[in-house]
Amino acid sequence: MTSVRKNSIHGYDHVYQITVDRGICFYSAADCLVWFTLLCVLARKYGVRILSLCIMLNHYHIQIWARSPEILSSFMRDLTAQFTRMYNRQYKCSGRLFLGQFSNAPKNKGQKIQDNYIYICNNPVVKHAVDRAERYRWNFLAYMDNRNPFSDPVDPEEMSEPLQQAFAAVRMRRRAGHPVDYLFFGGVYSRLSDKERRQVLDYIVVQYNVIDYGEAMRKWGDYRAICTMLATVAGSEYDLAEEQVREDYRHYYKMMRLAYAEGYDLSRVRLSRLSLYEQHRLANLFCEKAGATPVENAKFLHAAFLV
Fold first, then answer.
1. What pTM was computed for the model?
2. How would you write 62-110 as a 3-class SS string?
3. 3.40.190.10, 3.30.70.1290, 3.40.50.2300, 3.40.50.10810: which CATH number matches 1-244?
C-alpha cells in the first residue's frame, strides 16, 4: 500500500493523503476520532513524533518525525490499512479509501518546519471552516492550552452513570493500546446528552493525544504566541502537490445539517449507497439551500456524474 521512500531524519516530514475519489470521508466526530486514536496508538508503537496534524473532510496532513524511511512507510501502511478496514466495516463499503501512495515532503530547515506547521494548522482557515486556526477541533491546536476547549469542564460529583461508563471505556481502551472504535460511538456514547458527548470528545483527545506541543512551544513561544503567528502568517507548501480546488467548507457543513434533517445519519450511513434518483434530489437540495457547487455535490455524495 505504501513504498519505502526518503524521509527527513534530521527534521520533519509533511505527510498528506487524500481519499481515492477525492470525496468526503470524515463526516462525523466518530470518523475523526477513530482515525486520530488509531494514529496515536501507532505513533507510540513505531516511536514517531507528531508536531502537528489536521483532519480535513477528504484528506489529512501530518507533520511527523520518524527514525527511518522504513518506519515512516510502515507507520503509514498500518494507519491506512487499519482505518480503511474499520471504516468499511462500519459503513458496509469495500475497496480502498485513500490513494495507495501517500505524499511526503521532507522539512529539514527551521523556516521550512515553521512554514509547514503554519500551513497545516491553517488549512481549515483557508477552506473557510473557521476564521481562526485554534477554533477548529480537528487540528487539535486548542488542546495545547485547555483540556476542555470545546466542552464544559466535568464535575465529578455530577457525572451521570452513562458518562462514567463512557470515560471508563475510553481509559480501558487507551491502557490496552487500542484505538476508540465505531462500536464505542454506537454504544454508550449514543446514550449521552449533547453536553456529555462534547465532554467525551474532549476526553478522548486528551487521553490519547501524542502531539508534541512542548516542542512547538520551544520553537515558537507559548500558546498565545503560536495563535498570533498563525493569525498573521499564511504558511506555504511548495514541495508537495496537494489538490488545489477552491472549496468553501461552510457549504459542506450546511449539507451535513440538511442531510440529517432529511433523516440521514451520517455517522451510520453513506449517501453513495442511495439510488440515483435520491442522489439527484439531494444534490438539488444542496444547491438550493447550501449553495453547493457541482464539484462539492460530487464529493459529498461520491457521485462523479453530478459534475
1. 0.94
2. EEEECCCHHHHHHHHHHHHHHHHHHHHHHHCCCCCCECCCCEEEEECCH
3. 3.30.70.1290
